[in-house]
Design brief:
Length: 245
């Protein structure tokens, strides 16, 4: 490029996205004189889903602002909790985030999940069609223009991923109300109505059941319940919600 030179700095939380030489503070960038500030920020590695306010010489500007020579740009972190106006808060997760999807569903959060790699264009299209926040660790996917909304998942550890999403978006929690397999809503089920779906040992031992209205899967408080209860209790203690089935 051979155009206006600007000075740009990134909030500490965004520095993992940029080249090492830009992580210490303000650095010089030569622009082409016609590209928007949003384009410049993304060209330096930061998905706009992760950028908060853009300040030019201390004043907020839109991503469409075209930088002029000598301007000083500050890219802030997204404000937390992050508001997502325009639709009920719900999520779409890519193929690499299956454990996070199941844990969000365990907490009653609407979390659609693609168990197969359907490709970035299809994921972005579904995000826009269903107005879901796309959760991914794929920076390229989060830069696709057709996305309705998106967020980078910063950790590769499910416990940290869950805490990050709950802190960032503060979704209402309603544990034990969604099917962890398909995201459908659960309702109380009469034992006689689900008896044919139960193994003999389960039928004799348990009396309280719930069933998914979408896939028909039956749930009860079995041997695995204590592990799931620990996940739910920690999330509710930190982020609020109800624990009743």
């Amino acid at each position: 490029m051979n155009g206006p030179e600007i000075h740009i700095s990134f909030a500490p939380g965004l520095r993992l996205f940029v080249a090492a030489e830009r992580r210490a503070g303000r650095t010089r960038v030569t622009t082409d004189g016609v590209s928007s500030l949003g384009h410049v920020v993304e060209s330096l590695g930061v998905p706009l889903t992760e950028a908060g306010r853009l300040l030019v010489d201390g004043r907020p500007v839109d991503t469409s602002h075209v930088p002029a020579a000598g301007e000083t740009v500050e890219v802030e972190d997204v404000t937390r909790p992050q508001a997502v106006p325009g639709a009920p808060l719900r999520f779409l997760l890519d193929v690499h985030l299956g454990t996070l999807a199941r844990r969000l569903r365990l907490l009653g959060v609407d979390a659609a999940y693609e168990s197969e790699d359907i490709g970035d264009p299809a994921l972005a299209t579904r995000s826009a069609r269903e107005r879901r926040v796309m959760l991914s660790r794929d920076r390229g996917l989060l830069r696709r223009r057709e996305l309705w909304a998106g967020a980078y998942v910063y950790s590769d550890r499910p416990d940290e991923q869950l805490r990050d999403v709950l802190e960032r978006f503060a979704p209402p929690l309603a544990p034990w109300t969604r099917c962890t397999a398909c995201n459908g809503e659960l309702t109380e089920a009469d034992k006689d109505a689900v008896r044919e779906r139960l193994e003999q040992g389960t039928e004799k031992t348990y009396d309280v059941f719930a069933q998914c209205g979408e896939c028909g899967r039956v749930y009860w408080r079995g041997a695995h319940h204590s592990r799931l209860e620990a996940i739910v209790s920690e999330a509710v203690r930190e982020f609020g919600g109800a624990t009743a089935l």
